[in-house]
Amino acid sequence: MKAEYINPFLESASIVLEQMINVRPSTGELGIKDVKFVEKYIWIQIGLTGQMQGDIVFGLHENVALKLVSAMMGGYAISEMDDMSKSAISELGNMISGNASTILYNQGVRVDITPPVVVQSVANTGLKPKKALTIPLIMDGIGELDIQVLLT
Predict the structure, then answer these.
(1) pTM for this structure?
(2) What distances in angstroms separate CA 141 from CA 44, 86, 121, one per listed residue?
């Protein structure tokens, strides 16, 4: 697995987060990890088709998701991941992945994305734990958003 596969998603996530919540995230340590879906996390799963096949999965703790959605809604306090919150976090994943697919296209890589699926339960992901290229984005005052690229 090549590190350059995650770079368009990292670049896109940084741009989208800065535009949406006015925070410039910093990057954590890039690595290959066993992805383990844990409880109390929100997972945004987007399929990749075309010249890149697999999934991009954004993972964040529920508390981080609530802070992120609150920031996206102009500071309105969010206390639970209701349908509106899930829709907002889903759209965030969609915007990041859509922008990343444009970056990839400009690099000569044709890739399409599937609609995002927001998952709050490990049993519902449909993904088996496996190795992924992963990097956390650290947002001051909000928390971490893990970007995980699982290519087949």
Answers:
(1) 0.89
(2) 21, 21, 25
